[in-house]
Design goal:
alpha+beta, 8-stranded antiparallel β-sheet, 22 strands, elongated
């Protein structure tokens, strides 16, 4: 019995350890969005090639699909067969009502039913309660477009995406207005704004172009949680790519190099060697400041190594004087202390 309890304790501690605090932005199907912090485990994605466990620190966003709920599909198919037959209008009305009550989870079942050649009849069925009408009503009610995927899609470091089933029921998000429990079916996409993972004297953070812009007066600077002392040495390295809608959708790298909308590439105008070059930033640069009240946006770029000029909390951001929430992409930033 003791060994059994001990094994359970190890399992529970492992599960708790695998959960990580992250800042997220939830884009809901009704067009609204919610930003806050939550705790997420590494994503367990079931794909047609097998099970994948993707570290949350490597995920930039998740596009939430409609899924495939077999229990709902079995119920929906009963009502769909009635609507697809020559049953009386009274029976069809009842089946239509019950089908719509199944909610958003019935949409994949309806689409699968319509795509199955066995359910195509040569006889024209005229009714006020049709399958097409039920599908249209459900899509309008739950703000589902024709482009909505059935599977969930996980975007990894903005360069790779994997489709499958990400099995979660809801997210508990801590916002400035209190804790909110958001069901999966209401979420259109999840943006992982940043995650922190300590590795010895190094932490890994994520700067999201949709939020962490130096010109954004509402949360544009990411607090690293690092307190520096004057004279303390630290290193910042960054990688990734962001698209700045505020700058004609040009694609930027942390060193300030960019690709214009017409495809022309422009190199960084500032040297990017460790500890050299100007401290004045250019657009797209990773920048830092020490202390929340500081007005200085000092250039870090893709590589920086130096000493703190003053004591205070280290904050980082992406340099751009104008904020546009339509920006996309992210930088992965590693900070090392000495």
């Amino acid at each position: 019995m003791k060994s059994f309890i001990f094994s359970i304790s190890i399992l529970l501690s492992g599960l708790l350890f695998s959960q990580k605090p992250v800042d997220v932005k939830l884009n809901l199907r009704d067009g609204s969005s919610i930003s806050g912090s939550t705790v997420m485990s590494d994503v367990n994605l079931k794909t047609k090639y097998g099970q994948l466990v993707i570290p949350i620190k490597n995920i930039s966003s998740v596009e939430v699909g409609l899924g495939d709920d077999r229990a709902t599909a079995d119920k929906a198919n009963v009502y769909l067969k009635v609507l697809n037959s020559n049953s009386t209008e009274e029976l069809k009305k009842a089946a239509y009502s019950d089908l719509v009550k199944l909610g958003i989870k019935a949409i994949p079942a309806i689409i699968a039913f319509q795509e199955d050649s066995k359910n195509i009849t040569e006889e024209t069925i005229v009714s006020d309660y049709s399958i097409d009408q039920a599908l249209s009503e459900l899509k309008n009610t739950y703000h589902v477009s024709d482009a909505t995927r059935m599977e969930d899609v996980v975007f990894i470091e903005d360069d790779l995406k994997m489709s499958g089933s990400y099995d979660f029921v809801k997210l508990d998000v801590k916002t400035e207005y209190g804790n909110l429990l958001i069901p999966k079916e209401k979420i259109k996409s999840i943006e992982v704004l940043y995650s922190m993972q300590a590795e010895g004297n190094e932490i890994v953070l994520k700067l999201m172009a949709s939020k962490h812009i130096s010109g954004n007066q509402n949360g544009g600077w990411l607090k690293t949680g690092i307190s520096l002392k004057a004279g303390q040495k630290f290193t910042i390295t960054a990688s990734g790519e962001v698209t700045l809608a505020s700058l004609s959708n040009q694609k930027y790298k942390p060193d300030g190099s960019y690709i214009a909308a017409n495809g022309t590439s422009y190199p960084s105008t500032v040297s990017d060697d460790y500890g050299t070059g100007s401290t004045y930033p250019t657009y797209g640069n990773v920048v830092y400041k020490i202390g929340e009240t500081s007005y200085d946006a000092l250039r870090a770029g893709a590589k920086f190594s130096g000493s703190a000029k003053t004591s205070g909390t280290l904050l980082i951001s992406i340099y751009e004087t104008v904020y546009n929430a339509s920006n996309t992409g992210s930088y992965t930033v590693k900070i090392s202390l000495k």
